[in-house]
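Model: You mentioned two targets. I'll fold them one after the other.
Researcher: Yes, keep them separate.
Model: Target one:
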Amino acid sequence: MTFAEKVARGMARSMAKNDAKHKAGQTLPKGVDVEEYAYIDDGDNMHKLNVYRPSNTKNTLPLIIDIHGGAWVYGDKELNKGMCMYYASLGYCVAGMSYRLVPDVKLIDQVRDIFASLHFIAKNAAIWGADPSKVMLTGDSAGGHLSSLALCICLLKELQRIYGVTPPELDIKCLVMSHPVCEVHSIMRSKDFSPSKHFKWFQRTFEPLLFGDDPNSNEIYRYASFTQYSRGLTLPPVMLIGCERDVYGKHSRFLDIYINNMVKEGRCPRFVFDYTSKEKEKDKLCHVFEVMYPMREDSRRVLNAAAEFFQEAIRKEQ
């Protein structure tokens, strides 16, 4: 086992320990049905997804697809269960998948798992009572990176070639990123939101986990950060959720500037940055607080705002 692999597995153990604490006190929404499916029938538990629907509802519902975070090294579909159940309680069909994790696989394998799940969702949406023409794609932390990357791959054939996937038959009306870490070539950021010069050692350790022993020779290395894979593309409406206490908040502040410039260039029709300062928070917040504590007041506020953002995107298309 390499030093980088030891670091990745150590990170996963640390996050699992922390999550065990908040899960023990987590309250889950009621009145939601949950079904599990294998989107690749190979016996791998990481190739499964959950589908959530409000109980006793037969209507066809708009579809929310969620990609969990965990620094690419940790997590599964159960990590975001409470948040997905809350979205379902608002009147949505929600799908959230697991995908294989670093260091067992590389970034390209995670993307291919996600696209396999997206094709499975598109194929079965009608059976679940979900509308594949009304889709919100969302993700938190590393899932924010993966969700925005998946969206851009759907929009550009060259990215489809590079990652070796094809777009699913889903009409993504908007993208909602929660506390995203999208600039994978500069995980640690400075006070001015630029790449930190003091953590190059961390990047040298981390990047082989995503791209292989010689990252620069891997083509996807040049199409792995938001500023790379979104270049020249016109995106649907984008919402960004962040808070002042987020340890990775500099990524959100950087994206706020970057996507606002996309709006000025006519490459994003609507952008909202839902930013909770220390003065406005009801409880002391943290990175991905609405995932960890979906029933708290701050969390319900931002999740309701995301749902309304989705509804507005749907109305704009009608």
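Model: Target two:
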Amino acid sequence: MTTFIGTATAIVTPFLPDESIDFDSLGKLIDFQIEQGIEGIVPCGSTGEAATMSHQEKVAVIRFAVERVAGRVKVIAGTGSNDTRATIILTRTAKELGADGVLLVAPYYNKPTQNGFFEHFRAIAEAVHIPQIIYNVPGRTGSNILAETQLRIAESSTNIIATKEASASLEQMMEIIANAPSHFSVLSGDDSLALPVIACGGKGVIAVISNYAPKRFGDLVRAALNGNYAEARRLQYGLLTMMKLNFIESNPIPVKFILSQMGMISEQYRLPLTPASVHNKAAILKGMKECGIE
């Protein structure tokens, strides 16, 4: 995988009532994604509640995803953490399991310097030769990887092929796109910004909304990539309400509730995440009806 183009779903991790992983539901959800035309699956991301999964559980989910996908689309395993050594271990395991690439979240809590970010990603790239995607999400990590730092990282390692940019700064994303080496691209980390990011030269998105609307959102992204912006805008505004509602409470609380309403998973979370409030559930149900999500 020298690059990734299109929509990859940051897939939820379904749980059973005892909080163990519901592999049966996960398998059905993966099949649903592929049948609806999604180009990639991202297990063990923040939407997959990786923060409350053990190393062994992450390995099991990545193995299951690779086997279930069976080469039909790309599998980009979430292997990042705030511990460089632990990230290298899980990244190496993901490669051994057959993942097509890995998603590496910026180290959180530690709040490294910009040089610390550079050395972190360079160390992983040197240790494991597998396509790697930076995940810059300041709202969760507390630190922004500046455009100049991401470009420096990209220039240093050809197996770092993209950034999932969730800084919400279109200006920062444009700076990266304008100056990136040929092997490095920008993927939107915010569903609502996928269209403008692609219009500016981005190559796709790692998405939340595609968990339950994979065809509609995938069609939006494909239309934008093909330059059909009128169709992309039509689809964008048809889904905009749900894009907002996905974050009415912490992700993946709303998306798991939506999937449970569709009969695809049980509404189970691991603490410290809890079900959405009654008020917010009512707002989500109203939005689902308005947007034709069922």
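Researcher: Noted. Anything on target two?
Model: The chain has one domain: 6-228.
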